[in-house]
Design goal:
Radius of gyration: 22 Å
Low-confidence stretches: none
Distance between the termini: 36 Å
Strand content: under 5%
Largest sheet: none
Shape: elongated
Number of helices: 7
Structural class: mainly alpha
Helix content: 55-70%
Order of helices and strands: HHHHHHH
Mean pLDDT: 85
């Protein structure tokens, strides 16, 4: 069974940003598509959360809500959730920048998982600069282009 998401204190600004952005998306949906559509979207969201929490037990509730949904309304629903997830992804990017700046301001220790932290760990483990150079000399780096959510989205996709 899934648990509720708990945020560490350092991530509370992200939680607040996501909450604000969710409310703003809701305001736009209500303004452009009506309060009934916003209520329907919220029902879908709540039932999807319940399904995730409770496993397959809530399958019928969500399916029942979506069953028979006409194509125009289904498209609006997909666009609504797409807009929400796009702004949440942006909030996460902003939060990563915020956290990195916090680490840089502190100055005492590098950000865990960052390049400086890796170099410090390697030095503490006795890895010499010569060993690092030798290893880097044997690496073969090849760029791979993928459609990753953090990459720019084509305008044609956004306009659909």
């Amino acid at each position: 069974m899934a648990r509720d998401v708990e945020f560490a204190a350092k991530d509370l600004p992200l939680k607040e940003d996501v909450g604000l952005l969710g409310r703003l998306i809701g305001d736009v949906l209500a303004d452009q598509l009506g309060r009934d559509f916003l209520a329907f979207t919220e029902q879908v969201r709540q039932r999807a959360i319940a399904r995730r929490r409770n496993g397959d037990g809530q399958l019928d509730d969500l399916d029942e809500l979506l069953d028979g949904l006409d194509q125009p309304r289904a498209s609006e629903l997909v666009r609504a959730f797409s807009a929400y997830f796009q702004v949440v992804n942006l909030a996460e990017q902003v939060h990563r920048i915020r956290r990195r700046r916090d680490y840089q301001r502190q100055g005492a220790s590098p950000q865990p998982g960052g390049f400086d932290a890796v170099l410090q760990t390697m030095a503490a483990d006795g890895v010499s600069a010569a060993q690092v150079r030798q290893t880097l000399g044997h690496l073969c780096l090849e760029p791979v282009f993928t459609a990753h959510p953090t990459e720019a989205t084509r305008r044609s996709i956004l306009e659909k």
